[in-house]
Amino acid sequence: DCLLMLVFKDKCEKSKGHKERSSLTLEDICGLEPGLSLEGVNHILAIICLGQTVLLAFENKETMCAWDIRTRYSLGEVHRFHVTVLPGTKLESGPATLHFCNNIFVLVRDVPPGIIGHWKLSDMRRYGAIPNGFVFEGGSRCGPWAGVFFLSCAEGERISFLFDCIVRGISPTKGPFG
């Protein structure tokens, strides 16, 4: 789950075969958050990685959405859900976004998005839908994120289905042949 970004001054520079002005390799990508607004810029796509969050600003919504779609397709299984962290866990309760990309999932909060917890699906002891939400338990391999976490959301069944598919190596969004 890595993305190589090449930075050019403009399209002309790239089409003429000029060398990029800068490059950046993003590793351990956990999710994408389109449509953010920050400091007067309205069309921002956040690429959330375990070590950093990179913000890309676009001139219009259509270009931002096109980047979002292409990047999601390139990365594989990338999903996001708006949730509320319920009291009684190691995390501060309140609104958050659950992102997952292939076998890693994170909870983020704020603008720009900051990771408040991260897990690998393979380290889950159990997970599943509950009435009006989703619950999961991180095992001892989760380090500080071991324990039971309760999320309130309308899509608990969908999250559970996606987790099941990915754990079994099945792509829920792509056909059986990729």
Describe this structure in words.
There is one protein chain. The chain is α+β, with helices and mostly antiparallel strands and 178 residues long. The chain contains 3 helices and 12 strands. The strands form 3 sheets. It has a 7-stranded antiparallel beta sheet. The protein has a 3-stranded antiparallel beta sheet with strand order 3-4-5. 23% of the residues are buried. The mean pLDDT is 89.
Q: Quick recap of the structure?
A:
The chain is elongated, with a radius of gyration of 18 Å.
What is the CA-atom radius of gyration, in angstroms?
18 Å
Globally, the shape reads elongated
Describe the sheet with the most strands.
Answer: 7 strands, antiparallel
Percent of residues in helices comes to: 10-25%
Secondary structure tally, helices: 3
User: How are strands sequenced across the largest beta sheet?
Assistant: 9-8-7-6-12-11-10
Strand-helix topology:
Layout: E1 2-7, H1 11-15, E2 22-27, E3 29-38, E4 41-49, E5 53-57, H2 61-75, E6 78-85, E7 94-101, E8 104-109, E9 114-120, E10 124-130, E11 133-138, E12 147-152, H3 156-167
Antiparallel strand pairs: 1-2, 3-4, 4-5, 6-7, 6-12, 7-8, 8-9, 10-11, 11-12
